Amino acid sequence: MESHQPCVLVLSGKSSVEKELAVSLKNSNTLKLPDYPDVSLFLHSEAQKPLFADTAAFKIDSYMNSLSTTRFGRFLLWSPRLPSTHDVVSQNFCELPIGAVCVADVQFKGRGRSKNVWESPEGCLLFSFTIQMEDGRVVPLVQYVGIPRLDVRIKWPNDLYLNGLKVGGILCTSTYKSKKFNVCSGIGLNVDNAKPSTCLNAVLQKLTSVAHQLQRENIIAAFFNKFEKLFDLFISQGFQPLEELYYNTWLHNGQRVIVQHKDEDQDEVVDNIVTIQGLTSSGFLQALGDDGQMCELHPDGNRYFMIFPISLLDIKV
């Protein structure tokens, strides 16, 4: 889709409150995408039938019927094709209720870490939603709250792996306004595309003889139903109650890595061997060096660093 083509957003809500907000936003025409000025807004109740003619289109009614939250996911923006769901919620944060979600069937300028851009075809679950928090110390940890139940593993900081292959990722961004952190969380999950790597349904077919396929609508509804409970626990008690659940799903328990950094005095690259211990209270990696010193590893684009840029290499032991 080129920039001169219009973007279509369909607005819907779980209850009369969200539906009235959808009407208000459509009538005021306040939702914008700066790089795509031609945005067409429709209410779900009046959306043109051709939008839903594609059998692969997101089934809004099915999603709403499966949703049982009180806040998250109840206000929905859906589009058959968007540059980025993350841009929709981040650029319209103040116009949307907290917990609003934007879903796209196809995304052609999806955002990743280090400003990476992704194209995502049909068959992926692509959504971004809004969160608001007051304690900035725990904002980096929010991306770990929605932990999957299947054998999906977390590769720190925000990749999702299944059977050793990447099936999804998470992106959280935040801004600070009026003493609150406005957080936009985006999630991409490969549901149906078995090539070039793997997808959820391909693995599911190998695990069961039942010809059952996971549907995007049911996955995202189940996600919000669980996320809301975990998020409330996280806000009231911090990350500690979720630590065991998190560590049971991540890939790095006892992982040995080489931390490479440049020694400015010697003008050479120095290798330090460290063992990953877990997360710090701020959500960064905590590692123990062979010299007994603890260090904290931070992401820097697609690398990691302690005090200065480094790279990590797995050690096979």
Automatic annotation (TrEMBL):
Domain annotation BPL/LPL catalytic: ranges: 61-235
Molecular function terms, GO-annotated: biotin--[biotin carboxyl-carrier protein] ligase activity
Matches recorded under InterPro entries: aa-tRNA-synth_II/BPL/LPL, Biotin_CoA_COase_ligase, BPL_LPL_catalytic
A GO cellular component entry from the record: cytoplasm
Keywords assigned: Ligase
SUPFAM superfamilies membership: Class II aaRS and biotin synthetases
Record-annotated membrane-spanning stretches: none
NCBIfam families (UniProt xref): birA_ligase
Membership in a protein family: Belongs to the biotin--protein ligase family.
Protein name: BPL/LPL catalytic domain-containing protein
